[in-house]
Amino acid sequence: MAYLYLNFLDNLDKGLGDKAWGRNDFFTQSLNEQYEALKRKLGGYAPATLQEFIGYMFPPTSEHYPSTPEKYYNVSLPSFDRTMDENKRGNKILRNIVIRPEADENSHHILPETYDFIIIGDVTFGNVTEISVKGIDLIDRRTVKYGEKRVFCSSLCAFVKKEIYSRNTGNTFSVPDYGNGELHDSVLTNDFVNEIATKLFPVPNPAEAIGIFNQWLRYIDFRRYYLGKQSERCEEITDVYVCDAYMITKEFYRRNEEAFSGFLLDGVKDFGKSEQIILSKEVAGADGFPLICVAIEKNRKEILFETVGRNGKGKPKFEVNLNRYTRDAMGLSCQDPKGNIRSIKSYLLGERYLFTYIDIEPDLSPLDKNYEKDLTAKFGEIDSKYNSIILAEINRYMVDVSAKTQEKFNSQLIEYKTELDDRLDSDVTNNSDKDVYKTYQSEIAQLIAPIENEKKERLGSIRAKIDKIRRLKLSAAEKDKKVNALHGEESALNDEYDKRIETAKTQISLRDFYIRRNTALIEKKQKSLAIRCQEELDKLKKEKKNQLEFQYAESIDSEKIEIKNVLLQKLNEDKADKIENETIRRYQIYFRPQDITDKVKEIEKQIEEIAPRYLTYDNRAEKAKIDRQEKALTSILDGYVKNPFLPTYLFSPETLAQSSVEEIKDPEWCLESLNDRQKLAVKRALQSESIFLLQGPPGTGKTQVIAEITAQLTKRGKKVLISSETHKAIDNVFDRLPKIPEIRPLRLIPSQNGKETNYSPERLVDNFYLNICGNLEKQIARYDNYKETREEFDSTMKSLRLDYDRLLKLQRKNADTERQRNNLLSEINRLTGENEVLREKLLAAKEDTEMYTRTLKYVESYRFSGEGADSNVLDKYAEQVERLLKCFACFEEVMLDKVAELVNADIQAINKELERFLSEDAIVELKNRQRALRNVLSNLRDPDTDEAPNEGDSKYEEYKKNQSELIAVGKKIKEYENNSEFDIAGSVIYSLVPGITGAKEILKQLPSELAQFKVKIVDIVNKQRQIIEPTLNGSIDNENAISDKINELKIQISEKKRLYEKLGENPDIEEYGELNSVLKQKITRFFRDFGIVREYDSDNLETAFDIISDEWNKLETEYNASSTENKIKIPMYKDIVKYLSQEDILEEDRAAYTRELYNSANVFGITCTSRDRFTPSQLAELGKYGIESVDIRTQGIDVVIVDEVSKSSFLDLLIPILYGKTVILVGDHRQLPPMYDLRHMRGDDFDGLDEEKITKEINDGYTKLYEECFFKTLYEKVPSDFRVMLNKQYRCHSHIMEVFNHFYGGNGKGLVVGKKQQDDEKEHNLTVKINGNTVIDPKRHIYFVDCDQKESSAFEGSTSKINEQEAQVAITLLKELDKAAKGLVSEHKIIVDSSRKIDERPSAGIICTYGDQAGLIKKKRKGYQFTGFSGKPDEKLVISTVDDFQGDERDIIIVSMVRNPRGTRYDAEFIKKFERINVALSRARKLLIIVGSKKFLSEAGIIDLPDLEGDRSRDKINFPVYREIIDTITFRGRILTAKDILGE
Q1: What is d(CA 1014, CA 1026) in angstroms, rounded to the nearest whole number?
Q2: What's the pLDDT tens digit per position in 1493-1505?
Q3: Is 1417 exposed, middle or buried (CB count within 10 Å of its CB: 0-12, 13-18, 19+)?
Q4: How far is CA 959 from the centre of its chain?
C-alpha cells in the first residue's frame, strides 16, 4: 500500500520566518499558530490541538481507527513554474503542493458543511518522499476546484521525532516519526510527481497564462532597466535653502492684495497664481510650513538650443525634462549617486510644491561705461577735427578782414583829427570847452597866484596903514588926506598888479590848451577806435565762427550721430551677445520636506550635514513598486498564494459555472435604503468564496455596497482587506462603514506619506468607542430633541400642507387650460418625434448625397477607391480604366494610382524630355543628315571652280534651301551635345512609365499614345457621370423633399409651442408652476432635514404627504412606546458616551488596549501597490503601542475587496488579491482604464536605450498590455452568478443620466433613476439670461454649446490642445451661473446658514479633455470671485482634466471637448476613448453643459461600443455615440451656439 507522508513536525512550533520572505511564502507562522486562528472560524467544532484536528482529516492507521484509513485526497499544484529547488542535503524539493482531503464521516464532525480543509507544503524527495506541511487553511467547498488529481490512499502524519541507529555510520539521528514500524511506498512517486508537474495546472490552457506572465516579466525587466537609466540622472545644484512659507486663501489675498503683494515668497509671482497664496511673512490666519528651494542654474543659450517643438520653437527640452524629472521622488546628495541612491547619504525631499524659473541677465554696466568712454573720446576727436577746420578758416578770413577793418578805423581817426584841427580856432575863440576853460583858468590861477599874494600883502599893508590913520587922533581932513593918499597908492598898486597879471596871462596860450585837448582827444579816439576795431574784428570772428559752426553743425552732428549709432549698435550687439551667451536661467524648485512637522532649523541642520551638491532621482519608491509587482507575479507563478485556486478565477473564470451556488436569505442589513440590486450584489458577494465582480456605473452606490459587504463579512468573523489605486477611494469606503462594534478598521499608510487618516493604529480605540457611541448618541439625540423636533416637524408639515392646498386649488382652477396645454404638449412631442424620424431620414439622404457627390468627385479626379464613396461604381470605373490602359503599349504596366498623373501630364514637356532622352540616337541621325546635305551642296557647286550657284542660276534656290537646313542641323547637333547629360530617373516620363524607359521604340510612341489616352478616358468619365448624376440628383431631390417636410413640421411645432406658451402666460398658470417648483424644493429639504429616506412619486405629491404623515405617527409612537424605558436608559447612555469621550480616558485606554485591538482588527486598508509589511520605522505609531510590525500576509485575510479596479492594471491588481482567499472586484469598465505612464514616449526618448529592452514598437506593445482593462475581460467571462451590475443611479437628474446612458445601453436598457423623487432633488433652479435671451432655464438640465473655432496647441510641439472659443464660452457660462446662484441666495431660495452648517449653493466644475485647456480656463477665471457656488471643502470649484475628475462629482459640470481640427487629417483617438468621455459626462448632478464642435463630434465620434457583458453579437459597431448624445440633448435639453453665449 502507498502512503501520503505528511511532515507536520518541521513547522509545528516554529514558522518559516525570514525563509518565507525570501520565497514570498504566506505561511510565516507556525502550524500551531495557524491552527489557533483556524479554531476561531471552526467555532465549537474545533478540537483542542492541531494533532487531534489532523487526526480527523488524515485518519492514521492505529487501534483508534479500526476501519480502513484509506480515503480520497485531491492533489493540486497552484504554481505555473514547476522548477525544483534543492535543500542543503541535495534533495530535490517541489514547492507548494496542495492536499485537499475529501469530506467523510470523520471530518463531518469538526468541519462546517461549507468548508473544505487544505494543507500546503513542499514535497521533499529523500529516503521517503514526504510533504513538509507549512500551511493549513479552509476554502469554500462549493467552488469548483480545477486542476486537482484524485487519489485513494492512506496517510501518515509526523508530529514528533524518533531516534534511528545507523549501522553504517554507527550514529543515531532523528527522523520524523510516522507512527509505524516500517516505511512504505509513497504515493508521490517520481512518475506521479512528473505527471502532476507536467499535466496538472490550475487553468485549462496553462500556455496562455504562462505567455501572459512572460509578457509581464519582460515588462518588469524593462521597467527595472529603465529605472536604472532614470536613476543615473542627477542635476548639479547651485543653491539650496529652507524658508518658512505662509499659506493664505486667494480670496483673503485679494482683499488685502495691496498689503500682501510685496510678501510673495522670494518675490516669485507664481506663488500668487494658485488657489493658495504663499507669502514669506506670517499674517493673521495663515498656515505656516517649511519649503525647501533647490536652485539649478544653467546657461540659457545652451538649454534653448534644443526644444521639444519643431523649427526651434517650443519649450526647452532640458526644462521639459527637468519639470518631468522633478515631479516626485527627489533627494539631495553630496555626490553623484550614479543610480545607487542607497549607497550614499542623502536627504529625501517631499512632494514638489512649485517649479518656476527666472532669467538672470549678466551685469551690463561695464559695457555702458565703455560705451560712454568711447563715445566721449570719439566726440572729442570729431570736435577737435572740426575746431581745427574752423580755426583755419577763421584765420584766413581774419587776415583779409583785419586790414579792411583797420583801414576803416584809421580813416575815421584821420577824419577826427581833421575835424579837430578845423575847429581849433573857433574852439579857442569860443572857449566853450568847460574842461579846457577850467584847466586854463587853473593854470592862470597858479601863474598869478604869487602876484595876487604879493598884491594882497601890499594892499594889506596899505589897508593897515589906513586903519591905523583912522585910529589916529587926527583931523578928519588930515585923516582923509592921508587916507586918500593911501587910496591913491592903493589904486596905483592895483593898476600895477593888474598889468602884471595881464602880462602874466599873456604868457599862457589858450590855443595850447585846446591843442593839448585835441591831442588827448585824438589819443582817446585812437584808443577807442582801436577797441572798436578789435571789437568789430572779434565780432566778425565770432560771427564767422558761428557761421562756420552752423555751417559744419550738421556735419558734426551727422558724424556724431553716425559714430554714436555705430557705438550704440556695437553696445546693443555686445549687450545682446552678452545676454544671449551669459544669461543664466535659474530654476527654482520648491519642495515640501518629507516630514511636514519638521522646523526650518531642523531641516537646515539635516541638509547642512549632507552638504548637498546634486539633486537626484530617488528611485526607492519606484524600485519598491517594481519589486512588489515582480514579487506578486513570481508569487502566482511559483504558487505562493493564499487560495490555491486563485489562478483559476483569474484566467479561467468560466469554469466557475460548475460551482454550486446556493441562495442565502437576507441578512440583517446594516445600512438603510439599499435597493434590490445592491442587496443582490451583497448576497452574491457573501455567497462567493472565490471571486465576485461588481460593475458599478456612475452614481449607483458602489461604495455603499462595499461598506455593506464589509460589515456583513466582519459580522461573520471574517477579515477584510480594502484596496484601491487611490487613497481617496479607500477613505470613502472607510468613512461609509457602518458604526458597529464588530468593525475594527485599520488604515495602513507610511508615516512619511504625510497623509492623515482617522483609521490609523493610534485611533483603534477611538474608532471602537466611536462605533459603540454612534448608536447611543442617535438614541440620546432622538430622546432629548423630541419636543423641538416634534414642533419643527409639525410646523413645517402644516406649512407644506398649506402650500399643497393652494397648489391643488390652482390645479383645479387651471384644469381646462392645463388639459389644453397637455394636449398641445402631446402634439408637440408627437410632431417632434416625427421630426426626429424625418431628421434621421434626412441624415441618411445627406449621407447618400454625400456618397454620390464624393463618388462623382473621385471619378472626375481619377480616384478608384476611398471612404464614403459607392464602391460598386468605383470598381466598375476601375475595370474600364484598366482595360483602357491595356490598349496602349506604353501603359500596359501602369497602375490605377498613376492615372491622374497621366491625365494631368504635359505632353509638350514630355516631348522635350523625350528629345533629351533620345538625343544620342538623334545626334547620329542628324550627323547622317548633315553628311547627306553636304554631299548635295557639293554636287550643286560648279565642278570646275567649286563655286556656289549665283542668284538667278537654276540651282540657286535648291542650294540655299539645303544650305539653310544644314545650318539648322548643325545647331541642333550642338544643342543636343551640350544637353547630353539627362537624368531619366528624375523625369516626368520615369514617374509615369518607369517600366518602358528601356524600350526606346515603345517610348517614342508615348506622346501620341498619351494624347489618345486622354481623349478616351474623358469618354469613360463622361459615361460614369451620366450614370452617377441621375442618382445624385434623385438623392438631392429626396433630401430637399425631406427638408421641406421638416420645415413644415417645424412651423407646426413652432405654432403649437406659441399656443402652449400663450396659454402658460395665464397668471394662475405661472403661479402654479412657480409654487409647484418651490413646493417640491421644500419637500426635498424637509426629507433631508428630518432624515426621511423613503421614496415618493414626484408626479403625485400626495404620496410625499402620506410618507410625512407616517413619519409623524412613527415619531410619536416610538417616543411613547419607549418613553418609560428611555427614562432609565438615556441617562445611562449619556454616562457611557461621556465616559468614552473623555480625552484622559481615551489616552489611558489607547495605551492599554491598542495592541489588543490591533490583534483583533478585521478591516484593513492599503493601496494596490502599497508595502505589505509595516515596521515602526515606516509607521511611527506602531512603536508607540508596542506593536512590532504589521504584516498583511499573516493577518489571515479572508476577503480582498478592490475598488475602482478598472483603473488597475493586471500587475497592480495581483498585489492585493494574493493576500486573501476570496476576491471581490468593484469598478466600472466603462470608465477610465489603466494608464501606462510611458505611453507618450517620443522617438528621441528612446535614444541611448538598449533596443533589446525597448523600442517604439516594444513600448506600443507594453501600452496595449498595461492598458487592457483586466476587470472588463474578467467580467465578460465570469458566470452570471458571480457578477452583478448595479443599474439604479442616485447621482443625477434623469436627463443627465440619459446622456451617459448611451454607454450602458440606453433606450430603456442600462441605467434607471434610483428614486422616484430624484428629479425633484436634482433641480438646479437657475436661470441665465445673456443679451436679454434666456440660455439656461430651470426646466432643462442638459445643454450643448456648438463652437466653430478650430483647435490649436498651447505651444509649438505640444501634444496637448486648446480651444480659445470653448474656453471663453466655458468661463462666461461659469460667471453667469455664479451670478444666477447669487441671485437665488439673495432671494433666500438657496439657504446658506453657517451657524447650522447649511450651504445649499450649487457646486460647480469644468472638465477639459486636455490639460492645457484646463490651464487656459484657469487663467481666464483669475481675479473673479465665485461666491455663488458652494463653499464646502469637498465641493469647491474645480477646473481640471477628465483623469483627475474620476470619483468626483459636482452639481454643475461644464465639459470642454476642445477638439475641432483643421483639415481632414487628424487623430480622433482621444475622442473615441469613450471611457474617458463617459467619465466627463457622468460627473454632473443637476446641470450638464457640453461645449464643443457639433459637426466634428458627430462626424468623427463613431465608435465600436462593446456589449457590457461581453456578448459580441450585441456589440454596437460604428456607433455614432456623439450624434446620439446630441440628439438626446436636442430632445431633452437645448442646443446653443457660441454666439448665444458670447454675442457677436
Answers
A1: 19
A2: 999 998 888 888 8
A3: buried
A4: 89
> What's the distance, Cα to Cα, between the start and end of the chain in Å?
97
**Do the beta carbons of residue 203 and residue 651 sit within 8 Å?**
yes
Q: Is residue 737 within 8 Å of residue 670, measured between CB atoms?
A: no
Check if the beta carbon of residue 93 is closer than 8 Å to that of residue 169: no
- Give the pairing type, strands 720-724 and 1163-1167: parallel
Residue whose C-alpha cell reads 487501534 in the numeric block: 63
Residues shown for the chain: 1544
Cβ density class 105-114: b for 16+ within 10 Å, e for less = ebbeebbeee
pLDDT for res 63: 47
Query: Which of 618, 615, 646 minimizes the C-alpha distance to 632?
Result: 646
Q: What is the pLDDT of residues 1168-1214, one digit of tens each?
A: 888 877 776 656 666 666 676 777 887 888 999 999 998 889 999 99
Dihedral sign (CA 1515, 1521, 1523, 1526): positive
C-alpha cell read off for 737? 462603514
Amino acid at 264: L
Beta carbons of 1448 and 732 less than 8 angstroms apart: no
Cβ(1003)–Cβ(890) under 8 Å? yes
* DSSP secondary structure letter of residue 1456: E
Its sign, for the CA torsion 957, 961, 962, 964, is positive
Pairwise CA distance, residues 1159 & 33, whole Å? 13
Report whether pLDDT(310) > 50: no
SS3 content of the chain, % helix, strand, coil (to 5): 55, 15, 30
Task: Label the pairing between strands 1398-1399 and 1342-1346.
Answer: unpaired
Phi then psi for residue 1485, to 5 deg, are -95, -45
Other Cβ atoms within 10 Å of 1462 Cβ, number: 9
Going by DSSP bridges, is the β-strand pair 1288-1289/1312-1313 parallel, antiparallel, or unpaired? parallel
Q: Does residue 65 have a pLDDT over 50? A: no
The secondary structure of 1192-1208 as a DSSP string is GGGS---EEEEESGGGS
Residue pair 1206/1229 in contact (Cβ under 8 Å)? The answer is: yes
1283 residue type, one letter: R
Report d(CA 1194, CA 1172) in Å as an integer: 10
Query: Cα-Cα-Cα-Cα dihedral of 222, 224, 225, 227, to 10°?
Result: 120
SS3 call for 827? helix
Judge whether 405 and 537 are in contact, CB under 8 Å. yes
Gap between the Cα atoms of 1455 and 1470, Å rounded: 15
Q: Which set of grid coordinates corresponds to residue 568?
A: 550704440
| DSSP, residue by residue, 397-438 | HHHHHHHHHHHHHHHHHHHHHHHHHHHHHHHHHH---HHHHH
Q: Which residues 6+ apart lie within 8 Å of 974 measured at CB?
A: none
Rounded CA-CA distance 14/32 in Å is 8
Confirm if 719 and 1221 have CB atoms less than 8 A apart: no
Tell me the H-state helices in 1090-1122.
1102-1121
Residues in CB range of 1200: below 8 A, 6 or more apart: 720, 721, 723, 1216, 1217, 1219, 1220, 1222, 1223, 1224
Instruction: Round to whole Å and give the CA distance between 558 and 551.
Output: 12
Which long-range CB contacts under 8 A does 526-532 form with residues at least 24 apart? 526/413, 529/409, 529/410, 529/412, 529/413, 530/409, 532/409
CA distance 746 to 764: 7
pLDDT tens track for 1331-1360: 888 999 999 999 999 999 988 876 555 678
Of 1531, 1115, 1031, 950, nearest to 1294 by C-alpha is: 1531
